[in-house]
């Protein structure tokens, strides 16, 4: 459930009517979550609330977007909501994996919050296993999109102009029967569940995903966030696409500590 | 098609009988002492009992949608003996007033409280948590050794609003939320202040230098927004995080605006160890614990006793 940061007169800060909700799916390489970190950090978004749920593994730490000593002491939990009213953007960041059997309850809670807070649309950042691509998908761009029917009417044309590729459907019984096609997003976590639920509930949702593998996923995060930027225009596009995004201070030491000097 | 009542028997004499729905594929669950067996019965072979057998780990199952059995979150029970001495289930009575709640998670933190704060004169046992998971099992006995797994609640007799918890058992991820709801659900949260003590391997500490050269054990703190007092040690810097029950307690306090502080001791010893326990000593001068500290000579005696109880298990090379 959504719990606002300040309970007092801050009801204005939790009014998301007409906003775009940006959120990651916990997926292969954590690319969606890294991309969301870049958005929050670059746009300097303010935290407006927590998404208190029993579906995610608990974790706490100090402010991951701290820029100086003063703002480094605020506690952050595993699911928080940030907002930027000037761009009508609200972001939900998820920082830990799902607890077993809690995928469906989480989707239920999330989608009912989307409906009750009257968000205009949801953009889900996700990723899928690169090794599951077929021959055609191996060539060309590794980025894909998906739109629910309600959003297709609104922005379908824009996607054509941007020359984006829609996520292909795969045969339900490969090798046996090629006529029945289904959506298959291996390694995408709750992506498919959220997407199919949104389709059936009439929620406007777009899924932006990248094919990738586990490893150093920072370049994948940059690719995904630039892909998002082509559509939403959150920051001004520059020639050197990686310099316009600010890396948060919590991305230090992603691959472990320094080495012991005695090792050599 | 009529309903079929199926009875299955397993070696240890446990039975499970389930009414099968009239049509479609269905699953039947039965169990022996160690494992559950899931029988998938197809409509054609109903009389033959089983088409496939799957072995499932032990746990509580419930019937979910599409006739499949789903492993439920492992239930935990919090039993309070607050008022008349009779055990009551949590939240049976009115929530009780609590001004200070001190939680020690892990063997070393629990031993620190046993040595420096707790005694049988000033404190009484008021609650126990009974749980089971793949790592440990606790029972509702209050007579425990420091090396057992247990989760007990104590109350200061002279000031019944001071509550203390020693939790040396591991609370699994799908039990942590239940623990929070059942424990915090019983107390009134106005003017509540929470202190959490826990330990963690120093190998998990992320720093620019190698952890080999770090002088351990050392203390680091994390506090919620509402906590305005002094902390006894430096704050935990990014990119370090805290997990498990200490993180669950702190998340709860941050969301519901309860002032809380977590003191995490990074140590390179896994077992009960006096050096790690003594690393918590700076806390004895903090505002919350200052008034609760008992006689120092008592503490040294208890620490020695703890060591010897533990070391009798370590004599395998003698």
UniProtKB/TrEMBL annotation, chain A:
Location relative to the cell: Nucleus
An annotated GO BP: proteasome assembly
Keywords: Chaperone, Nucleus, Phosphoprotein, Proteasome
Main location: nucleus
Keyword Phosphoprotein: yes
Family of this protein: Belongs to the PSMG2 family.
Protein name: Proteasome assembly chaperone 2
Organism for this UniProt entry: Pygoscelis adeliae (Adelie penguin)
Lineage, top ranks: Eukaryota, Metazoa, Chordata, Craniata, Vertebrata
């Amino acid at each position: 459930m959504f719990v606002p940061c300040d309970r007092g007169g801050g009801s204005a800060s939790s009014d998301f009517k007409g906003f775009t909700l940006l959120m990651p799916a916990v997926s292969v390489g954590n690319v969606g979550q890294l991309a969301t970190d870049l958005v929050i950090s670059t746009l300097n978004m303010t935290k407006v609330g927590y998404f208190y749920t029993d579906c995610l593994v608990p974790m706490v730490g100090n402010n991951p977007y701290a820029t100086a000593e003063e703002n480094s002491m605020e506690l952050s939990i595993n699911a928080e909501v940030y907002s930027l009213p000037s761009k009508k953007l609200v972001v939900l960041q998820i920082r830990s994996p799902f607890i077993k059997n809690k995928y469906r309850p989480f989707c239920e809670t999330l989608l009912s919050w989307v409906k009750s807070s009257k968000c205009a649309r949801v953009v889900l950042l996700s990723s899928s296993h690169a090794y599951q691509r077929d021959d055609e998908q191996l060539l060309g761009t590794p980025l894909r999109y998906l739109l629910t029917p309600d959003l297709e009417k609104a922005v379908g044309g824009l996607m054509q102009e941007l020359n984006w590729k829609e996520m292909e459907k795969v045969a339900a019984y490969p090798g046996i029967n090629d006529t029945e096609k289904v959506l298959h997003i291996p390694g995408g976590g709750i992506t498919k569940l959220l997407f199919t639920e949104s389709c059936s509930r009439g929620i406007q949702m777009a899924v932006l995903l990248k094919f990738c593998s586990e490893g150093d996923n920072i370049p994948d995060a940059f690719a995904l966030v630039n892909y998002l930027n082509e559509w939403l225009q959150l920051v001004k596009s520059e020639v050197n696409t990686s310099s316009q995004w600010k890396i948060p201070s919590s991305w230090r030491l992603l691959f472990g500590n320094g080495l012991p000097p005695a090792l050599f | 098609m009529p309903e079929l009542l199926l009875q299955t028997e397993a070696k240890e004499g446990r039975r499970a009988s389930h009414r099968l729905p009239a049509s479609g594929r269905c699953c039947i669950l039965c169990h022996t002492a160690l494992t559950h067996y899931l029988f998938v019965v197809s409509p054609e072979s109903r009389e033959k009992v089983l088409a496939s057998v799957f072995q499932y780990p032990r746990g509580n199952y419930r019937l979910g949608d599409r006739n499949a059995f789903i492993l439920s979150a492992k239930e935990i029970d919090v039993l309070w003996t607050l008022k008349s001495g009779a055990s009551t289930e949590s939240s049976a009575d009115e929530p009780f007033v609590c001004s200070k709640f001190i939680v020690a998670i892990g063997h070393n933190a629990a031993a620190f409280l046993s040595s420096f704060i707790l005694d049988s004169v000033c404190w009484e046992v008021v609650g126990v948590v009974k749980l089971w998971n793949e790592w440990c099992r606790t029972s509702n006995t209050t007579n425990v050794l420091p090396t057992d797994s247990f989760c007990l609640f104590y109350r200061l007799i002279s000031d019944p609003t001071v509550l203390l918890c020693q939790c040396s058992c591991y609370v699994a991820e799908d039990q942590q939320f239940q623990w929070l709801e059942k424990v915090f659900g019983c107390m009134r949260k106005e003017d509540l202040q929470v202190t959490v003590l826990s330990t963690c391997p120093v190998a998990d500490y992320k720093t620019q230098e190698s952890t080999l050269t770090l002088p351990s054990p050392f203390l680091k703190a994390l506090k919620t927004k509402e906590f305005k007092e002094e902390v006894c040690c430096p704050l935990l810097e990014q990119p370090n995080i805290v997990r498990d029950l200490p993180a669950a307690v702190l998340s709860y306090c941050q969301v519901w605006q309860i002032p809380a502080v977590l003191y995490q001791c990074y140590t390179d010893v896994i077992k009960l160890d006096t050096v790690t326990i003594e690393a918590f000593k700076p806390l004895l001068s903090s505002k919350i614990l200052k008034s609760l500290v008992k006689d120092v000579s008592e503490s040294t005696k208890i620490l020695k006793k703890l060591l010897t109880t533990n070391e009798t298990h370590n004599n395998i090379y003698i």
